[in-house]
Amino acid sequence: MNQATTPLTRSVSRPATVVDAVQAAIEVAAAATQLHADLESVAALRKAQGRPSFEEETADDKAYFRELVAEGWPLDLEVVAWALSD
User: Fold this and answer.
1) pLDDT (0 to 100) of residue 25
2) Are the beta carbons of 24 and 31 closer than 8 angstroms?
3) Which residues have a Cβ under 8 Å from the Cβ of 39 and sit 6 or more positions away?
4) Fewer CB atoms < 10 Å away: N or C end of the chain?
5) How many Å from the N-terminal Cα to the C-terminal Cα in the chain?
6) Of the candidates 59, 66, 64, 61, the residue with the CA atom closest to the CA atom of residue 83
7) Could you give the angle at the alpha carbon of 36 between the alpha carbons of 30 and 39, nearest 5°?
């Protein structure tokens, strides 16, 4: 299998150079930009269809997990951070 090597897929045995690090940062920034654009498109589509936003749709779930956090349930830290956000 001949796969193109990028800073994100190269062997870890070769030390990263500044050029590799910059290239990886550019790739991550491009992926983040594309993800943001995709999320905006999905949000616009949901709105056009008269559906609630993702945040509105998950509000009940977030409230439930906030109650669990307040009661002291041991939850994954990422769940706690999500529940307490906003």
Assistant:
1) 94
2) no
3) none
4) N
5) 46
6) 66
7) 140
